[in-house]
């Protein structure tokens, strides 16, 4: 089985889908000749031609808006938003058009598009190249929001997202692109959207996370194992829909839950997870549900100390989980 | 008349559709004032622009992305008066939305009318996207976005035109310029006199046409559609017209325009003028007209009765169709 980076897994998935289904097209800013600013789509235009891997004008609302029309008329568009931070000009098209189309037409129309967007910080991106935007979109019925944490999952989830009849926002943490490697089978496979992955079994504390944070949680769990603290790590893999059953099962087992996300604290997706646990597993808990998240500041600072202070690290997760274990 | 394929038979059908739309529109206001439906959005005054353009296209095969003013357009495109009334009364059988959407949010996959929301100019990008697929799939279809002049203040109008021009897409941007965005007159919306002037910025033809003349609108639209099908790219069409009624049944247009102004424009009522022309040209006779009026009254009565009796959606359906089937 091939070893691939997270980025290569996404590229190879796109290549496989472009090859197997002529309806699949890719477009966005710089995705063609340049292969995208992160090189995710490198080589795809050379292989599949300018008609299917399209350099679009620099206008996010038009990128998503045209993808909606193209999907209705028979294509499977995979538009790329260059950075998640740039998605907001397109938010009306995503939330009010793509996500509501099936509902408002009483199931007469559907919008099978996958919007890919790199997100997250720790890569010296400053305020406008580091944001986590998932909470805005996790709020929206009709939309699916997927965040993979490994190359293997990236392929299975992206393949599923492309096959899915509804609009999917596929968020790729930039911190994983080149640092995260893993085995990825060559053959096509699907991972269902909405199923969490218990990445590590434990009995003292449950850490619930997704994307890069799930990987940091695994590191923290390894550290704490050396101290005799047994940490269970649940990788949600998608926040809409999210795997309520997996969350409740783990919370009931350990009785102590730490939710981790890089997105800001207030109104972040952790609040939703916490609410579900308190509504449905309150009497299994031995400690308050805790959240470790990015701070409530508008975005990540550019200068290294500011960026570091914002970012979640494996050490911060270990500290929070240790405190919770002691509670 | 240049050879545009506009036969007397087609003109007769165009007239029937315009007159039907006007009669249906009048009925909606009566029903609204009787308290039987909360909201009317009219195409009253816009019939020539909508019907003239529709007849120049492959109705039901090409794609249209309408806006809320476009009842005459969707009638021309194949929606029935019963379906319009089912939508108006928010009944379960409403093919546009199953009673989910407020009146005038048209949509029918069967008829190739893309479902519409309410934020203006979003449909311009959708039409460009439909056309992008047509170009790639070579399905020969033309897509048309319909929109009011107020919506050209939105960025997405400009984004969509630019996108379509860069990719030479088979799309027509069809503006129905009635001079008002609810209460705001064109001069407070933009400095240019003609919406078509925007075309130059995007390197496409821009044409202004008398939107009260369905034949002229037909010819301009036909030329734009032919150009699109030849692979020569998009066209911006501006049909200058007027709306004779308030923006909606909740609006009072006396706040922003005089009765004299409205009366002046009524001299150019597209339905009245087209009727006079067809009579003068002997395309229709007084007897034809009387027969059509009789038929229209029966159709409008039937639609009203049918939709009135149709059941409302069951409250249990509220949670349906948020998502489709699982991916295959």
Features:
heterodimer; A: 327 residues; alpha/beta; Rossmann fold; 5-stranded mixed β-sheet; 4-stranded mixed β-sheet; 20% strand; B: 328 residues; 5-stranded parallel β-sheet; two-stranded antiparallel sheet
* Terminal residue distance of chain A: 44 Å
Shape annotation of chain A: globular
Mean pLDDT of chain A comes to: 97
SS strand fraction of chain B: 5-15%
What's the multimeric state? heterodimer
Provide a descriptive summary of the structure in words.
The complex is a heterodimer of chains A (327) and B (328). Chain A is globular, with a radius of gyration of 19 Å. Chain A has 327 residues and is α/β, with parallel strands linked by helices. In chain A, the strands form four sheets. A five-stranded mixed sheet of chain A has the order 9-11-10-13-14, sandwiched between helices. Chain A has a four-stranded mixed sheet with strand order 5-7-6-12. In chain A, strands 3-2-4 form a three-stranded parallel sheet. Chain A is built from twelve helices and 14 strands. With 328 residues, chain B is an alpha/beta fold. Chain B has one domain (8-319): Thiamin diphosphate (ThDP)-binding fold, Pyr/PP domains (Rossmann fold, 3-Layer(aba) Sandwich). In chain B, 43% of the residues lie in helices and 9% in strands. A five-stranded parallel sheet of chain B has the order 1-2-3-7-6, sandwiched between helices. A two-stranded antiparallel sheet of chain B has the order 4-5. The chains are: A alpha/beta (327), B alpha/beta (328).
